[in-house]
């Protein structure tokens, strides 16, 4: 019987390929048997904890064996996982942990020193598993309300043999994305959402146990689910790119003879700028995949030359549509279909349906621009504890008479060209993408207003160039707080990619005809000032 959960996907390969390499991270390789052993011991500790429904477990780790075993152990214990990022400020991490309601937390060695800052803002009692910590006594003394389990407890635990039954409709993972209300919002993705995506990927890319996957994405980025489970579902090996190689991973690709590469286009652009995409540089690659932001044609052309035996594809999809829902295969004639130096986002996955609609949700014909909406089994469950926002974005279409009339409104503007390929044209709101990360400008503005102690503050997507957005700029009026103080305060609440690169002060905010702050006028002013 085909696996119906992410845990079952991994465990099937443990049975068929126990001695093959499942993971290579920090220079250490682990077989499927070894990785499963650690994951099952972690699961044994987690499953004994009383967990409210839906069962969730948080994982605070990154680019370590514990990070991956923590995800797997949480899933094997019957819970969905909630990844937390050590790059995020402690306040933000504590908020996600608290809001998720997770009673458990698996912590990697790389995050132990960050625990004090997070737990200082968590009021709920937790069971905290630290598989690499020999003595948890100091932590237990500082935080007596929590229960700490260290290396000895993990090693003494009998591997969980009987995996709890999990309904595929239950949450597989809860990912927090930038929110328009000033706080991150959680997207609930079920096992039933993920499995159709995996099926499509396994079939399209003919993945085998001989494949060697890159792993570039943080676990808080849903594209990481592709890396982990498309590879593990076929007994392939996953190779985690170390932080020091992320800027220029060309040697890593060659040294590990990778066959499947997946990253944001920004990594390809950096490698191109550093002249690392020399012709024939990556002979082992057979698939070169990009997602998370616009793919410049210049990157596609250069990467194709560097990996001549690979097929280059551009994937598109919001977290709410489970990783990716459309894709475009780069061809020799693709330049003719590209618009403004950007590769099309293509056509929907086999199980997905797309529509372009106007503001009244009326379906538009080919080559008409409108909001891109998607439906199908990959459309997520909705937003965690936010029924109003869920109703706003997950809607029924007045013209859809099919049995499953539930669509996700992406907020992306697109149209289908004459060949039927989707062309992405921007957003209908204040959401932007920076280095593949989704950012609601209103969330950043909320923080800037707090740190600047003023109601007059906006955040603009500036600067940018022909390849896309380079950063954010905050424009502030009516504040006596210095720029450094504003930015330092922002860093305590926002991850680094959301913190503006600079603050510009103005005497008075320009207003448009509706009495709102005139952001286009401010953008024009910034450009003019920088040109003088």
Structural descriptors:
Rossmann fold; 532 residues; globular
- Please state the structural category: alpha/beta
Tell me what portion of residues adopts beta-strand conformation.
15-25%
- CATH topology call of the domain at 35-188: Rossmann fold
Physical arrangement of strands within the biggest beta sheet:
4-3-5-6-7
Biggest β-sheet description: 5 strands, parallel
Assigned CATH superfamily of the domain at 35-188: ANL, N-terminal domain
Number of strands: 29
Do you know the CATH architecture of the domain at 35-188?
Answer: 3-Layer(aba) Sandwich
Number of helices: 17
Task: Outline the structure in words.
- This protein is α/β, with parallel strands linked by helices.
- The protein has 17 helices and 29 strands.
- A hairpin with a 7-residue loop joins strand 8 and strand 9 (185-190).
- The model has no long low-confidence stretch (mean pLDDT 94).
Fold blueprint:
Elements: H1 6-16, E1 21-25, E2 28-31, H2 32-47, E3 56-60, H3 65-76, E4 80-84, H4 90-100, E5 104-107, H5 115-119, E6 127-129, H6 137-142, E7 147-149, H7 151-156, E8 171-177, E9 185-190, H8 191-205, E10 212-215, H9 223-232, E11 237-240, H10 250-255, E12 260-263, H11 265-273, E13 287-290, H12 297-306, E14 311-316, E15 326-329, H13 334-337, E16 347-348, E17 353-357, E18 370-375, E19 382-383, H14 387-393, E20 394-395, E21 407-416, E22 422-427, E23 431-434, E24 437-440, H15 441-452, E25 457-460, E26 464-465, E27 468-469, E28 473-476, H16 483-491, E29 502-505, H17 519-531
Parallel strand pairs: 1-11, 3-4, 3-5, 5-6, 6-7, 10-11, 12-13, 13-14, 28-29
Antiparallel strand pairs: 1-2, 8-9, 9-19, 14-15, 15-16, 17-18, 18-21, 20-21, 21-22, 23-24, 25-28, 26-27
């Amino acid at each position: 019987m085909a696996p119906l959960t992410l845990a079952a996907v991994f465990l099937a390969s443990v049975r068929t390929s126990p001695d093959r390499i499942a993971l290579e991270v920090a220079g250490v390789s682990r077989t499927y048997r070894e990785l499963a052993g650690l994951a099952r011991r972690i699961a044994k500790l987690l499953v004994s904890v009383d967990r409210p429904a839906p069962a969730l477990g948080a994982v605070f780790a990154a680019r370590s064996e514990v990070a991956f075993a923590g995800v797997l152990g949480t899933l094997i214990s019957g819970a969905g996982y909630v990844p937390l990022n050590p790059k995020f400020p402690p306040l933000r991490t504590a908020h996600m942990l608290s809001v998720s309601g997770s009673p458990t937390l698996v912590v990697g060695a790389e995050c132990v020193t960050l625990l004090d800052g997070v737990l200082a803002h968590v009021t709920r009692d937790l069971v905290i598993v630290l598989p690499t910590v020999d003595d948890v006594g100091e932590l237990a003394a500082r935080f007596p309300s929590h229960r700490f389990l260290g290396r000895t407890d993990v090693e003494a635990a009998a591997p969980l043999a009987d995996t709890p039954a999990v309904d595929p409709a239950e949450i597989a993972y809860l990912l927090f994305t930038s929110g328009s209300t000033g706080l991150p919002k959680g997207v609930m993705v079920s096992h039933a959402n993920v499995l159709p995506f995996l099926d499509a990927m396994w079939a399209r890319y003919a993945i085998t146990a001989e494949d060697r996957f890159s792993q570039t994405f943080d676990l808080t980025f849903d594209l990481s689910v592709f890396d982990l489970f498309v590879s593990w579902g076929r007994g392939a090996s996953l190779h985690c790119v170390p932080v020091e190689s992320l800027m220029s991973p060309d040697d890593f690709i060659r040294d590990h003879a990778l066959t499947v590469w997946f990253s944001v286009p920004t990594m390809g652009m950096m490698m191109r700028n550093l002249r690392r995409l020399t012709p024939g540089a990556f002979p082992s690659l057979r698939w070169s995949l990009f997602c998370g932001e616009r793919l410049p044609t210049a990157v596609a052309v250069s990467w194709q030359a560097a990996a001549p035996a690979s097929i280059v594809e551009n994937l598109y999809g919001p977290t709410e549509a489970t990783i990716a829902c459309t894709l475009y295969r780069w061809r020799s004639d693709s330049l003719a279909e590209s618009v403004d130096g950007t590769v099309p986002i293509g056509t929907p996955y086999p199980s997905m349906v797309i529509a372009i609609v106007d503001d009244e949700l009326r379906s538009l014909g080919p080559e008409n621009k409108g909001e891109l909406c998607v439906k199908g089994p990959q459309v997520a469950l909705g937003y965690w504890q936010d029924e109003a926002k869920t109703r706003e974005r997950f809607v029924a279409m007045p013209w859809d008479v099919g049995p499953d009339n539930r669509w996700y409104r992406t907020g992306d503007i697109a149209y289908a060209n004459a060949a039927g390929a989707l062309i992405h044209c921007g957003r209908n709101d204040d959401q932007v993408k920076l280095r593949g990360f989704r950012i609601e400008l209103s969330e950043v503005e909320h923080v800037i207003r707090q740190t600047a102690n003023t109601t007059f503050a906006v955040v603009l997507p500036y600067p940018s160039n022909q390849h896309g957005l380079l950063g954010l700029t905050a424009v502030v009026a009516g504040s006596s707080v210095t720029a450094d103080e504003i930015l330092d305060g922002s860093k305590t609440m926002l991850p680094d990619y959301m913190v503006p690169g600079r603050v510009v002060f103005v005497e008075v905010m320009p207003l448009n005809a509706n009495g709102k702050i005139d952001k286009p006028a401010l953008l024009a002013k910034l450009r003019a000032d920088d040109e003088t």
